[in-house]
Amino acid sequence: MALDELWSGKPGAAEQLVAKDFVGHWPDRDVHGPAELTATVAEIRAMFTEITFDLQVGPIVEGDFVAGRWIGTATTAEGTMSFFGNDVLHVDQGRFVEYWTASSAGS
User: Is residue 50 over pLDDT 60?
Assistant: First the structure.
C-alpha cells in the first residue's frame, strides 16, 4: 500500500501518492507538495524508534473523497504510546491533492 511505503520511508513514495500541488492540513501547519510531505513524515518518524498504524474504519470512499479512522502505536525511549486519528483525503486523477488530519493521544 502506498501509504505504508510513505510511512516506512521508501524513496519516491510521496511522488507516487500525491500531486505536485498537494496540500496537507496538519493541526499545526500546512504541508505543500511531495518533498515537504516526505520531510514532514520523516520528522514525525524521527520522534519514535518504531511506529505502526492500524486502520480501524475505512477506507470510506464517497466521490473524490476518502476517509478513514486509525490507531497508531509508537515506541520511544520512555516506552510505548498510542494515538488515534481521522483522515480525509481529496483525490484528483488518481493522486491525493488535499489532506486533513485530526489526531489525539490515546490511553
Answer: yes
Do 55 and 67 form a contact (C-beta atoms < 8 A)? no
Query: Structure pTM?
Result: 0.88
The pLDDT of residue 107: 54
* C-alpha dist (Å) from residue 30 to 45, 59, 97: 18, 23, 13
**pLDDT band with cut points at 50, 70 and 90 for residue 13:** very high
Q: Which of 37, 41, 88 is nearest to 66 (CA)?
A: 88
Residue ranges of alpha helices (H) inside the chain are 2-8, 13-17, 33-45
Burial environment of residue 11 by CB neighbours within 10 A (0 to 12, 13 to 18, 19 or more) = exposed
Give the containing element (helix H, strand E) for 100: strand 95-105
Give the pairing type, strands 65-76 and 79-92: antiparallel
Contact criterion met (CB below 8 Å) for 48 and 75: yes
